Amino acid sequence: MTKKGINNLFFIIGVVAVVVMMLTFDVSFIELWHHLCHAGYWLIPIFGIWIIIYGINALAWMEIIKCQLNEGEHVSFWRIFRLTITGYALNYATPVGGLGGEPYRIVELSKDIGNQRAASSVILYAMMHIFAHFWLWFTTIFLYLALAAIGDLPFTSGTAVVLLIITVFCLIAFYLFSRGYRYGLVIKTLRGIGKIPGLHNWSARMLDRHSEALHNVDKHIASLHQQDKRSFYYSLLLEYLSRIVQSLEIMFMLLLFGIDCGGGLSGLTLTFLHSILILSFTTLLANLIGFLPMQLGVQEGGFVISIAVMGLTAALGIFVSIICRVREILWIFIGLLLMKIYKE
Description:
The chain is mainly alpha-helical.
């Protein structure tokens, strides 16, 4: 199949997924319209903040790509920004997270820097995106403890157990990521897949036919951390920053409901910290079950549980989840349109 054919295939998959999501939306259109009207003008910053978030994501990916460019090569920021939006649109719309977005990015970026470097940069960025999630979850443990220490949030034996489990989970992930960044992970991943019943022959064929290319991809992955630590940590910082900026979306919705922790600078600061915790707990739950398109049902439950933990009402959790779902669908449409209306 040609690259144009692959592009069209991804577009069709995205459109079909969006139609299915719209038909299976778990609220009536009357209720949905009521929630949208209640949000009113707040929809502008809620939807618009994602231009900044995707821009930061694109900068993080650009930092990785720059390390793999040969002299005289150039990839524009607008191109990476577009591929960032379309890639996430496909990730939202397809099962298993990166099943759609990452292959699409590799196909498109290979037009600029070749297959092997495109694959390694996309894999590296996907790793960085996930790595930043773990850092968010890990650091918000201490944020929760700090707020509990001043009496703002409850702290029970059950809370302590949950935070301890999350801590161990993150520390194990940090170790695995350090191994992946140091030695690469493509070859090891394929070997691991080969141990799954029924996939041994497929894994062996891939390793045999593409051994040199796969080793080169692993070489590119390992070189970022070993040879350009500045770019590595700058990319990680940008990805982490994008999560913090994303918390503003939740903060806007809390303010919409008049929840400002007493108002003033201190009240708004506390509301923002609560928003970071809500985002952290919700994304942790959603990523634990990442095989559903848009994590259908999981994200909604995550918002309700996270907001309930913060002492807020379940109705607010449902409202936040619905508005976030509408925002995702809107940006999926934008991403799919960018696949068709803009050609390099």
